[in-house]
Amino acid sequence: MRIKAAILANMGAARPYKDSRPLDVREVELDPPGAGEVLVRIKAAGLCHSDLSVINGDRPRVMPMALGHEAAGIVESVGSGVTTVAPGDHVAMVFVPSCGHCIPCATGRPALCEPGNAANGVGTLLSGKRRLHEGEAHINHHLGISAFAEAAVVSEKSVVKIDPSLAFDEAALFGCAVLTGMGAVVNTAQVKAGDSVAIVGMGGVGFSALLAAAAAGAREIVAVDLLDAKLETAKQLGATAVYNARDENVVHSIKSCHPRIDIAIETAGSARALELAYKITGRGGTTVTAGLANPADNIKIQQVSLVAEERTLKGSYVGSCVPLRDIPNYVAMYQAGRLPINRLLSERVSLDGLNEAFDRLADGNTIRQVLVL
Asked: 221-266: per-residue pLDDT in tens?
């Protein structure tokens, strides 16, 4: 079938993207689903820093590539052997397909699925196939999904059936922003009632983490960002204190007022943000990093503090999630009014407006923009 999709031919385009137009929306050929695969009509897709980091070259991928990885839609058809979804089902997409058989999957850590991450690295589906092409030339899949398009063929292991009453523009956020941010709080950090929590980086993932910390009963929630407007929003969503990271004395200010931060979570994808999060973590506390930084970036920490203060530094990929368990649970929390994810929606955009939307994301002037089809 012929579909419109946003194709990135080369990374590292000059800003502003409204002029350089790195994403080219054009018609391409989408093959029908193979064994274990699903054809999904895309209804909404969130714009995430993981997409931006491919556009700007921070996280190199094979080109050309159809971008987009945080999405929701309706199943149109399924390939042979598919049992978990059927035509007409509403689904959210997960950007790491879990094979169910490798050691991480078998030990309850599907976010670390070895075949899934290997396929993502080379731009294929879990099957090793590419279902997008122009003539004889293949187009690579972004994280097994490629959701900035009218439709996508994905692995059955990349979708989770959701309540059909959930609006698509809200449902899309559960596949990345919510899964990553809330999972970092609930699964990785295991925040409990009475904990003092700091979150560094107020984007879609950071705000999801903030909402999760509030739902978990955190005693105080400290929000840190570079933009005052986002800090004001953080206060409205439950932050008990906010600090601008541009202040050269921000670490001293935080530690003076909040000497016992039990858990600090970095969601900015920045080495400097992670170093800040580590510095403000209290003795015996845990620092979690959930932001994907440039692979060339390194951090510098005081090694002795890990021992003398019994500190913990942990990574959190896709919120250490179990998608089949976590997405329905988080949706239920939202529907019960305990997780106001709809407050994170900044703007709805079209396929033709993606380049301008990524300018806004790169400037930091938005929480979560959503492509609506």
From this structure: 999 999 999 999 999 999 999 999 999 999 999 999 999 999 999 9
What dihedral angle (degrees, nearest 10) is formed by the CA atoms of 352, 354, 355, 358? 170
Q: How far apart are the first and last CA of the chain?
A: 17
Per-residue pLDDT band for 365 (boundaries 50, 70, 90) equals confident
Counting every residue, how long is the chain?
373
Give the C-alpha separation, 269 to 56, whole Å. Answer: 14
Nearest to 9 by CA among 68, 66, 51: 66
**Residue-by-residue DSSP string for 71-99:** EEEEEEEE-TT--S--TT-EEEE-SS---
Same domain, 16 and 165: yes
Beta strands in the chain, from DSSP E residues, in sequence order: 2-8, 23-30, 37-46, 65-66, 70-78, 90-93, 132-134, 137-141, 151-155, 159-161, 196-200, 220-225, 241-244, 263-266, 286-289, 312-315, 345-349, 368-372
Predicted TM-score of the model (pTM): 0.95
CATH number, position 288: 3.40.50.720
Are 17 and 148 members of one domain? yes
Burial (CB count <10 Å: 0-12, 13-18, 19+), residue 119: buried
Q: Is residue 323 part of a domain?
A: no
Q: How far apart are CA 45 and CA 57, in angstroms?
A: 21
